[in-house]
Every structure is written in structure tokens, then in C-alpha cells.
Design goal:
Structural class: alpha/beta
CATH architecture: 3-Layer(aba) Sandwich
Order of helices and strands: EHEHEHEHEH
Largest sheet: 5 strands, parallel
Number of helices: 5
Strand order of the largest sheet: 1-5-4-2-3
Shape: globular
CATH superfamily: Rhodanese-like domain
Number of domains: 1
């Protein structure tokens, strides 16, 4: 199964519109301490397989990491496990900081 892609600006617009999305941040705790999106579910990539039961397979899930590489792997994994509504945020939190929230700390 495959997954979709979403740009940070598109995600921002959907969040402002009140769309119900699960933001799944798969970065490590030290990365999350630098910057994160409010309300995101935080599960490091290495724990997603054992913790996938914490995620609703019917929810629309947006996977997020630093640049979009790890989150793409997680999105592919979730799609292969029967999660039909998975998106990867292109460019990750770094692109979010560039395109949406220029005041966000970057690393």
C-alpha cells in the first residue's frame, strides 16, 4: 500500500480549517526538545512497530520528522499495516519552520 504527501503549508491550512488529523512526530526526544508542533503524538521511529496500537487505523495520520525521510519510512510502514489514510509531511519540521512558522527553532 502507498501513502500520500502533504506540504507544510497545506497541513497548516487544514489545521486552521479544523480538520481532524493525527500528527505523528517520529523524531527522538532530544529533537522534540528543540521544536515541535502542539498536540502532536510523539513516538520515535524505532518504537512505532511496537506502539502502533496507540494509533487509530481509521484516523488520517500525518507523519513528521526533521526532513521527511524517517517519516516517509514510517508512513510506508503504517500503510503496509492497514492504515489507509497516511500522509508524509514533505520536508519535515525544517520545512515547516521555513514555510509556515519562521519563528520556530531550527537545527
Amino acid at each position: 500500500m502507498s501513502f500520500g504527501r502533504i506540504l507544510p503549508a497545506e497541513l497548516s491550512a487544514r489545521l486552521r480549517a479544523g480538520d481532524k488529523l493525527v500528527l505523528l512526530d517520529v523524531r527522538e526526544p532530544d529533537e522534540l526538545a528543540i521544536c515541535s508542533l502542539p498536540g502532536a503524538t510523539e513516538i520515535p521511529m524505532g518504537q512505532v512497530a511496537q506502539r502502533r496500537g496507540e494509533l487509530d487505523p481509521e484516523a488520517e495520520i500525518v507523519c513528521i520528522c526533521h526532513h521527511g525521510v524517517r517519516s516517509a519510512r514510517v508512513a510506508g510502514y503504517l500503510a503496509s499495516q492497514g492504515f489507509p489514510r497516511v500522509l508524509n509531511m514533505v520536508g519535515g519540521i525544517d520545512r515547516w519552520a521555513e514555510d509556515v512558522d519562521r519563528g520556530m527553532r531550527r537545527y
